[in-house]
Amino acid sequence: MSESGFGQRRMGGRPMFILNEDSQRTHGRDAQSSNIAAGKAVSEAVRTTLGPRGMDKMLVSDDGDVVITNDGATILNSMDIEHPAAQMIVEVSQTQEDEVGDGTTTASVLAGELLAKAEDLLEQDVHATTIVEGYARARDIALEAIDDLSLDADIDDEILKQVAESSMTGKGTGDITTERLAEVVVNAVRHVEGDEKVERDDIRVHTQVGSSSSATELIEGIVTDDEPAHKNMPRSVEDATVLCTDGTFSVRETEIDAEYSVDNVDQLTAAMDAEESQLKELADAIADAGVDVVFSHSSIDDRTASHLAKHGILAFEDVDDGLTTSIAQATGGKRTGKPDDVDEDELGHADSIRVEKYGGEDLTFIEGGAAAKSVTLFIRGGTEHVVDELERALNDALDVVSAAVDTGSVVPGAGATEINIAGRVRDEAAGVEGRQQLAIEAFADAIEVLPRTLAENTGMDPIDALVDLRAANDDEAGRAGIISSGETGEIADPVEEGVIDPAAVKREAVESATEAATMIARIDDVIAAK
Length: 530
Description:
Mean pLDDT: 85
CATH class of the largest domain: Mainly Alpha
Strand content: 15-25%
CATH superfamily of the largest domain: GroEL-like equatorial domain
Largest sheet: 7 strands, mixed
Number of helices: 16
Number of strands: 21
Structural class: alpha+beta
Shape: elongated
């Protein structure tokens, strides 16, 4: 129930208020029911997007901007959610996205179902602490099951392509197949793979509207929308020596404030000539150092740009700070503050730097750097909606493939892992005494929401599908999931069908969903100040 004037206590027969009388309080079963209902509502909002036949959502902002997607993190982050318990479910998706880059819908749906099962237990007078303890125990069993379900196979390119395809199935990719995109993703990840882990930050994504999705390609280098600083500069340089700098390309200011008196035109001309000479000397020094291309974080004076152009030097100004550093690293150079006095080891190298026009805009391609680690996925599409959704799909694929390479562990997808987890948790529950057993069994029921939802979204009867899945996976050599086939689905081996997920995605979903559900279930008092 809700109360105003919360905090009323009696001392010596007189009431005492310890909080503002405008404060509102919801406590007991009402607080639990309200929080659980809010969490379930958020979960239901994304449930229909799960799986290869999941549906899209159209998100319209206050400004009228439209986003069409089935990406769980994008949907939840775009929703105007005020309820604090519902916001916790949104945080689950954000955590999942930050940690492993995919599985946000899985984590959110699981958190909602754990709350629904917790509500049933609360109505049976099972204490919230007992539920929390049972869920924690079940979570540990689930994590052990995920480890045991990991495929005993080397993580080669073929498996990585299957991981990438699985993450993109059901997402909008325009007229390019997920098979082709998966190949691009794996090539990108392999290119930046280090001795210990994948350098995910070395993979950049650049979108450009104006062509079909099939024009999407991997650029071994960096793509930027910076334009040449002068129209007379070359638009293509091969075998380029590169300077990345924060230095000044205008007339140097004196260290003291001074005023100069100009009495005639000759003095003014002399002053202008001196400035011009200084800027020319700067350009000459850069040319003498053998520089072919300049990337400057600061602005370049028009006169300096003109002198650089006369030397045949291609220069870019006001380059983003992070991009300047990335270009320096990619070309094997160093970022310097003195463009007119550079050492040879501060200069980088690129096989090719070219400027091309796309739909009236200039794009610069820096390819084949000396360090040659940075790569860019150059994403094309006919509309903003297409390239945006394709970008989300590719980022998810890049993240899961990186996770698979880093951990070296993958598991069957299509609900097979979840149905096995549920069976393992139920078996373990039989050996637990007291009401905690009910919570562990409820966890097993909750995790089956994922294969059940996959079945619903593919047009199968969810009850029949669960029964068949349990039977298939109870077989000693059994391994079965929900595989989309035509207008419906079928029970089949996901590994043979190429549906594979990184174990890290499953682990993170179980951990984050359990944490959020138990946190919400323990709340029995909500105090709100107006």
